[in-house]
Amino acid sequence: MASSLGSDHLEEGSKESLDFSKLRQIAGIQEDVLPVVVQDSSTQEVLILAYINRLALDESLKTGIATFWSTSRNELWVKGATSGNALGIDEIRVNCEQNSLVFLVTPRGGGACHTKDVDGQYRTGCYYRCIDDAGGLEFI
Predict the structure, then answer these.
(1) Of 94, 99, 59, 101, which is closest to residue 76 (Cα–Cα)?
(2) I need a labelling partner for 120 at 20 to 30 A (CA). Which of 3, 24, 85, 112 fits?
(3) Taking the CB of residue 49, how many other CB atoms lie within 10 A of it?
(4) Helix intervals (H) in 44-84
(5) Cα 103 from chain centroid (whole Å)
């Protein structure tokens, strides 16, 4: 299971270690959450997938900065509060069944991901690898 592996292996490794238990883990928390896809308004790049509860949505609407609910820390997560890589909200879209959201955002910093590339720069988004023909991960 991916959660038992170190973050360096997960974030920078070339071995596929998908965590298929994540939704079960989220279902076990005591907070009601929805998934939210975060997409760059200009480039259309999908930056991150996060979770949001009512408190985080209200905070996002009030401040105009993407705010989520951290399912691992069980606390409000204001994107960019520590890194400076805030995401300004341009639009919030709701799906047909009202059980997921899309935030269209403008990045206000060096990147949207907490990881850094080989040059020490924050990555623009969290989807920086693809599964290659051999079943491993390849940086894109």
Answers:
(1) 59
(2) 3
(3) 13
(4) 54-63
(5) 11
In whole angstroms, give the CA distance from residue 88 to residue 110.
13
pLDDT in tens, the chain (140 residues): 344 556 777 889 889 888 888 888 888 888 899 999 999 999 999 999 999 999 999 999 999 999 999 998 999 999 999 888 999 999 999 999 999 999 999 999 888 988 999 999 999 999 999 999 999 999 99
Using DSSP's 3-state secondary structure scheme, residue 7 falls into: helix
> pTM for the complete prediction?
0.85
Ordered by where they begin, the domains of the chain are 32-139 (3.10.20.810)
Q: Which of 107, 103, 137, 135 has the alpha carbon at shortest distance from 123?
A: 107
> What is the predicted pLDDT for the residue at 5?
54
Q: What is the DSSP string of 85-118?
A: -EEEEEEEEE-TTSS-EEEEEEEESS-SSSSB-T
Q: Which of 138, 19, 123, 10 is nearest to 71 (CA)?
A: 19
